[in-house]
Specification:
single chain, alpha/beta, UDP-N-acetylmuramoyl-L-alanine:D-glutamate ligase, six-stranded mixed β-sheet, 15 helices, about 40% helix, about 20% strand, globular
């Protein structure tokens, strides 16, 4: 199948662009059907859980996988971070959260052959747009949250939202929709399906007349703790956003009849998610790597970490992706950071200098006095400068890439990269 995909890509290159765009929906549909047919529609023999949302999907996939594993349910999972089939795992180095149709169907086929009963999939708006979710029998559709992202790719926020809603529109009446009731878009997702529904939020989790009450929520520097229907759930994960990620994973696994004690045990064992609020160092100053690449995510991370001094290393993805968010992220950095170092992230075919200039343009929108700022294109040099300027008690936060393994350059070029590895190397250097 690898040869087939390579041949297909060659054909795409020789077809005139306008011709291809016209037939693109039919092309995506046919490829989705062919992939499912080739692998024997493997999803029909699995319980498939699809997770959509702007933030938190990867963390939810990781948490849900570990909880199901704790409960003795052999599970496979696919996310922007890694691919897992039972105890086997492989890092996702494709620079693609939701891989192509042949890859996904092959993954489902291998999961079934390995004896997995359940599969948890991170589902993206772009993946839905390209029909990568078609001919996959989803038993559970999960909505985490929705905020503006990929606006240029979809044409508007409404179209972006409708792409995510598509997973719920296609959910069978016998399926289950799990919806974050605290998100402003929850009513749209609820109305999108006639399937059974489970709602979760700060107060409780509700499904089919049963309510799991949430009390005594504590979110602090040591982690997260709350009471769920008489069971104490404790996690070393940080921030309110991870509280919601835990709630989402809890709702998913409750829907699969996992006992609260198993859920609490699994969550308590998880010390962190690679590249998600990951502390590479805590003393004498903290160094944190996080995947935050949207204004909302950036604001949440900065708000949690700001104390006493925040040194921020950030950039933004090129390739024409979400240019609108660059000044918005600059404004947020100016409001929270004491020192800002703008740098390269994934420029693709754009000029890195233009990208960071656009981020910088947002500084003037902040009402806070202007923070110290630098522009250093070389990402390693930017990280080095941040580490050198940090004093005991400060926090260095490096955002945008998390645990990603590549910097994407012009013409599809890739540079091997890992923010966490670079930090460790620079900390060891004299």
């Amino acid at each position: 199948m690898v040869r087939y995909e390579l041949a297909l890509n060659k054909v795409k290159k020789i077809i005139p662009r306008q011709f291809f765009l016209f037939f693109q929906p039919a092309y995506h549909f046919f490829l989705a059907f062919f992939a499912a047919l080739f692998y024997g529609f493997p999803a029909r023999k699995l319980t498939v859980i699809g997770i959509v949302g702007t933030k938190g999907k990867t963390t939810v996939v990781e948490l849900a996988h570990e909880i199901l594993k704790e409960a003795g349910i052999k599970t496979a999972s696919l996310s922007s971070l890694r691919f897992k089939i039972g105890d086997r795992e492989k890092q996702n180095d494709l620079k693609m959260t939701m891989p192509g149709r042949m890859f996904i169907q092959r993954f489902l086929h291998e999961a079934r052959r390995a004896g997995c009963k359940c599969v948890v999939l991170e589902v993206t708006s772009e993946g839905i747009k390209q029909f990568r979710h078609r001919f996959i029998k989803f038993d559970v559709a999960v909505m985490t949250n929705v905020a503006p992202e990929h606006i240029e790719a979809h044409g508007s926020f409404e179209k972006y939202l409708r792409a995510k809603l598509d997973l719920f529109w296609r959910l069978r009446p016998s399926g289950l929709a799990i919806i974050n009731r605290d998100d402003s878009n929850h009513a749209r997702f609820s109305a999108a399906t006639s399937a059974h529904k489970m709602f979760y939020g700060k107060e409780n989790i509700v499904a089919n007349g049963k309510t799991w009450a949430i009390r005594d929520i504590k979110i602090g520097d040591a982690g997260i703790e709350f009471d769920l229907d008489g069971t104490t759930i404790t996690s070393s994960l940080l921030g309110e956003f991870n509280f919601y990620n835990i709630l989402t994973a809890t709702a998913i696994t409750l829907s699969q009849h996992v006992a609260l004690e198993k859920i609490a045990s699994a969550i308590g064992r998880i010390s962190g998610i690679p590249g998600r609020m990951e502390f590479v160092q805590r003393e004498p100053f903290a160094v944190v790597v996080d995947y935050a690449h949207t204004p909302d995510s950036l604001k949440n991370v900065y708000a949690f970490l700001r104390n006493p001094k925040l040194i921020c290393v950030l950039g933004s993805t090129g390739g024409g992706r979400d240019k609108w968010k660059r000044p918005a992220m600059g404004k947020i950095a100016a409001e929270f950071c004491d020192k800002i170092i703008l740098t390269n992230e994934d420029p693709y075919d754009e000029n890195p200098q233009d990208i960071i200039d656009q981020i910088e343009s947002g500084f003037s929108q902040s009402r806070k006095p202007k923070a110290e700022s630098l522009k250093i294109i070389d990402r390693r040099e930017a990280i080095r400068e941040a580490l050198k300027s940090a004093q005991p008690g400060d926090t260095v936060i490096i955002t945008g890439k998390g645990a990603e393994q590549w910097i994407m350059g012009p013409g599809g070029t890739k540079i091997s990269w890992d923010d966490r590895k670079v930090v460790r190397e620079e900390l060891r250097s004299p």
